[in-house]
Amino acid sequence: MVALRAKTGIDQIRPHMIGDTGGTWPPASIFLNSNESAYGPSPHAITAARAAVTGIARYLENPDGALAPVIAKRFGLRDNQITIGHGSDDLLARLARAYLGPGTELIRSANGYLKVPNYAHANDAAVVSVPDDNFRPSVDRMIAAITERTRIVYLANPENPAGTYLPGAEVRRLHAAMPEHVLLIIDCAYEEYVDATDYEPGHRLVEEAGNVVMCRTFSKIFGLAGARVGWIYGPHDVIDVLRRIALTFPVAAPSAAAAVAALEDRGHTKFVYDANLASRRRLSAQLQELGLEVVPSQTNFVLVKFSDPHKSAAAASDALRAEGIAVRRFGTPTYQDYIRITIGLPEELDACVSAISSFLETRT
Predict the structure, then answer these.
(1) Residue where a domain stops, chosen among 233, 249, 264
(2) Number of neighbours of residue 89 by Cβ within 10 angstroms
(3) Claim to verify: residue 68 and residue 209 sit in the same structural domain
(4) Cβ partners under 8 Å of residue 347, min gap 6
(5) Contacts (Cβ under 8 Å, ≥6 apart) of 207
(6) pLDDT, tens digit (0-9, with 9 covering 90-100), for 306-344
(7) Which CATH number characterizes residue 337's domain?
(8) Distances 322 to 32, 275, 361 between C-alpha atoms, Å
(9) Quick one: 152 and 251 in the same domain?
């Protein structure tokens, strides 16, 4: 029997995260691995989702109509330049389908969001991975990498899995050097967690240019990871293209109802921001006191380096998992000495630090 052949680029797609490594551990009880909000969604969002379940027999006909005006009001945007997706992952995949193909290139920071190359591979496009500066995207190298084949420049700001960011002036310098036919994607999934004073919200550049889009999500600070709702803000022509190739009904009614309620509960969002910032600073300090290197973060996670080969990141991850604590490792050589720890509840982080301390003190 002859095997059917898919696009050749699909053969290059690889998993970008490492799961459990085979230990016979009980189910995890502390989840610090997927950058979900430890504080969950607004109680109003839960109430709204439950109420919407009564109509679950029906499709949500117009998620843009339900969500875009509320998003626009919350963030001071233009609602006719917003479209909704099944998480921001759906929207990034649509952008790749629309603007990439054989003979084209996507430029990204080499150690940025590790799934991004897969979007290009799925469309038989080339990936240009530009070296960074200690996990911080290099604007100079990204500019130098642009060629006549470039169609997309992707920048996560802040980055994942490192948590680094670029100041607004640097993002603008990158954009100023780009040809008009190249699309700049600014993935701002973690923007709501940023406290850096020189950070510029992604939507400002969108409103000044015809070749910039900004992706956002309800999966992080709004605590709705399981609802799978993302949105994008961009020029009218790009938004029109994304709507044309969207899933017929990309968002479930309970998810949309939860998202609307989450946007309206500013108090809960402020609480999560403050709690995350305090815990991020405390966790970073505690890990540094243990002699570990922590990459400065502007997100709801920290990236931690285990330099001692006798106390490796893989062994640390296994030791944590044996205590019921799940953290994240990644399947690229650059990250082999690192684990990423999501900011959990204070007591969860205390348990994590205690387990790491015990691991480091145990003789090999």
Answers:
(1) 264
(2) 17
(3) yes
(4) none
(5) 78
(6) 999 999 999 999 999 999 999 999 989 999 999 999 999
(7) 3.90.1150.10
(8) 14, 27, 16
(9) yes
Structure-derived torsion over alpha carbons of residues 147, 151, 157, 162, reported in degrees to the nearest 10: -70
Instruction: Determine, yes or no, domain membership for 74.
Output: yes
Which residue matches tokens 């600073």?
A: 281
Phi and psi angles of residue 231, each rounded to the nearest 5 degrees, phi first: -150, 160
Q: Are residues 30 and 127 in the same domain?
A: no
Strands 150-156 and 105-109 come out as parallel
Same-domain status, 60 and 36: no
- Shared domain for 95 and 216, answered yes or no, is yes
C-alpha to C-alpha distances, 356 to 21, 344, 352, nearest whole angstrom: 18, 15, 6
Helix axes 253-264, 63-75, angle to 10 degrees: 10
21-38 in b/e burial notation, b at 16+ Cβ within 10 A? eeeeeeebebebbebbbb
Residue 126 pLDDT level (bands cut at 50, 70, 90): very high
Model's pTM, two decimal places? Answer: 0.94
The stretches of the chain forming alpha helices (DSSP H) are 43-52, 63-75, 87-99, 116-121, 139-145, 168-176, 203-206, 236-244, 253-264, 266-289, 313-322, 346-361
Helix, strand, or coil (residue 175): helix
Quote the pLDDT of residue 19: 67
Domain span at residue 277 reads: 16-40+267-361
Instruction: In whole angstroms, give the CA distance from residue 354 to residue 325.
Output: 11
The alpha carbons of the chain give a radius of gyration, in whole angstroms, of 21
Within a domain: residue 237? yes
What CA–CA distance (Å, rounded) separates 70 from 279? 30
Give the pLDDT confidence of 136-162 residue by residue, as tens digits: 999 999 999 999 999 999 999 999 999
User: Domain check: are 36 and 161 in the same one?
Assistant: no
- One domain, residues 179 and 243: yes
Which of 220, 243, 264 is the last residue in one of the domains?
264
- Asked if residue 75 and residue 203 are part of one domain, the reply reads yes
* 3-state SS record for 91-148: HHHHHHHHHCCCCCEEEEECCCCCCHHHHHHCCCCEEEEECCECCECCHHHHHHHCCC
In the chain, the amino acid numbered 134 is N
